[in-house]
Write a sequence for this structure.
């Protein structure tokens, strides 16, 4: 009489096939991060900033569709820590999402390895610490999920992908901000806007006919919606938070807290020695905050000059609503 059970060899083969099916065509990406405090002066005022591997912003998490990502996080902060992956879909593994309620906090001196698959996902995202208002102290970084080989992107291949993390910034410690909220007080106005951790940021383009750069822009701030624009350069929107869009040109884009956009910017053939401003300004506030950057070309000899790119009125809600409606 034959046994009703499969032979052990068949079970092992079936298990291997199952694993192959789950991760078919996928790669593995591993990161080892140490999260700690470091004195930095993004706006000229020294402050304890949350850094990852001594970097602010933190290192790029660069992966491909269907990759299995493992991130070992060592907490060298004096308080509990969780890292969340803003916009990334945690399919059947919500316990890797890095928020209170699905994850136990990583205690000081301890570590935890996040592991998740970027199943059928592409796009531009970012990560940040989700506990105790630590995001106001830094600890954030960019996430890129690239198309698999053989899956074309729906626009010409850019010369370079550039991550731009923009957001409001406070010179006071995040623990002091947290104490204000615990006491029922409102947060004060931010002290400024950072672009990739700097109050003034320099970007370098190469000239060329048809040469484009893909800017992956995320608002990593606490409370302030922002408007992004580049002097004398149009923004061609091509992707937002994991979905390719119908291509559309904008002179400026409103980017609200937590949002990420990909735009293509065409390099100029001739600059006549000029460089160009990048403006990131606050929206829907009684005061105006301004983050400043400069696009340089190899022949840029002069500082930016000429007309400043127009921005929507501070409380022009219709501009932002119409922008959202125009994205398909």
């Amino acid at each position: 009489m034959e046994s009703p059970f499969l032979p052990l060899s068949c079970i092992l083969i079936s298990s291997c096939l199952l694993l192959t099916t789950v991760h078919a065509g996928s790669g593995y990406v591993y990161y080892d991060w140490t999260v700690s405090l470091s004195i930095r002066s993004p706006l000229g005022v020294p402050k304890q900033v949350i850094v990852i591997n001594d970097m602010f912003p933190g290192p790029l998490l660069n992966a491909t569709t269907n990759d299995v990502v493992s991130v070992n996080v060592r907490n060298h902060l004096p308080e509990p820590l969780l890292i969340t992956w803003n916009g990334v879909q945690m399919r059947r593994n919500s316990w890797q999402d890095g928020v209170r309620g699905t994850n136990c906090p990583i205690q000081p001196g301890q570590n935890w390895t996040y592991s998740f698959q970027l199943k059928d996902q592409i796009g531009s995202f970012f990560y940040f610490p989700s506990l105790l208002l630590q995001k106001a102290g830094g600890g954030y970084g960019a996430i890129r999920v690239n198309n698999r080989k053989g899956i074309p992107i729906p626009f010409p291949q850019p010369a370079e992908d550039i991550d731009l993390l923009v957001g409001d910034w406070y010179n006071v410690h995040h623990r002091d901000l947290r104490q204000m909220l615990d006491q029922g007080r409102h947060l004060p106005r931010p002290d400024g806007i950072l672009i990739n951790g700097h109050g003034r940021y320099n970007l370098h383009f190469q000239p060329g006919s048809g040469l484009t750069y893909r800017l992956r822009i995320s608002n990593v701030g606490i409370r302030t919606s922002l408007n992004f624009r580049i002097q004398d350069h149009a923004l061609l929107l091509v992707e937002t938070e994991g979905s390719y869009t119908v291509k559309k040109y904008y002179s400026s884009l409103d980017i609200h807290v937590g949002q990420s956009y990909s735009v293509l910017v065409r390099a100029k053939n001739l600059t006549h020695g000029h460089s160009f401003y990048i403006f990131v300004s606050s929206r829907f506030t009684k005061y105006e905050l301004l983050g400043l950057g400069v696009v340089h070309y190899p022949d840029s000899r002069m500082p930016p000059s000429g007309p400043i790119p127009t921005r929507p009125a501070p409380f022009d809600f219709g501009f932002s609503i119409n922008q959202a409606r125009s994205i398909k």
Observations:
- Helices lie at 8-22, 174-182, 317-326.
- Residues 27-146 form a domain with the Immunoglobulin-like fold (CATH 2.60.40.420).
